[in-house]
Each structure stands twice: as C-alpha cells, then as structure tokens.
Amino acid sequence: MRNISKRKTLSEKLKEEINFLTNQKKIFDASEEMYEANVWSIRKLILLAQYLRPYLTILTSKENGDYKYSDSWFYIDLFAGCGASTVNNKFKMLGSPIISLLRGIYYIKKERRIYQIH
User: Fold this and answer.
1) Can you name the residues that pair with 93 across neighbouring β-strands?
2) Per-residue pLDDT tens for 18-58?
3) Total domain count for the chain?
4) Cα separation of 113 and 117, whole Å?
5) Checking CA distances to 25, which of 11, 17, 19, 103 falls within 20 to 30 Å?
6) Closest Cα to residue 82, out of 51, 39, 45?
C-alpha cells in the first residue's frame, strides 16, 4: 500500500496563491485605479501572500497565556501600490495592501475558531 502524502506540492501551492490573487472580482470592480504590474511584482505579491501566515503566527504566539512579543502589532508596506494590479492588460490581481488585509482577516478568523476567542 502506497503512502500518499497530504502535503501540497509546490505547484499546487503556487496555483492556490495565484487563484487567491486573481479571483477577487468584487475587489477589482470596486478598484478605481490599477497598477501595471511586472514579473517582479507578481513574484513579490505571491511571496507576500505566502509570507504573511508564518509572520502572523510568530507575532501572535503566546507564552503562559500572554502574547510573547506584544499585544498590538502594526504592518507597514513600504512598497505598496494601489489595491489592485493588472498584468499586460490580460488579467487582474490583488495588490499588496489588499493581500495583507485579507490574509490578516483570514488568519484572525481562523485563530478565533481555534482558541474560541469572542
């Protein structure tokens, strides 16, 4: 019997991130401005989307019931553009301000379910 790993492959993770970044029609429709993204922009946005979860996990870690580092955090994106980007006028994707906001909200909602925070 083969042991089939439930871990996602790099290709599956990448597809998942790209779907997250490109399947946000309501946000794109509400965006008045679009930043023209380049290849390096796409890489940055994918990495940002992947990086935020471990970053938030570290920041919100607890020790003896109290936050290990601080009970308040700030996130500053020095390279932020507008909320959405377009690539060669072919497809649209989220920009870093929206990525950080959505990933933060998803993380907080998940943590509330785990720890039953109200």
Assistant:
1) 85
2) 888 889 888 888 888 888 888 788 888 888 888 888 888 88
3) 1
4) 7
5) 11
6) 45
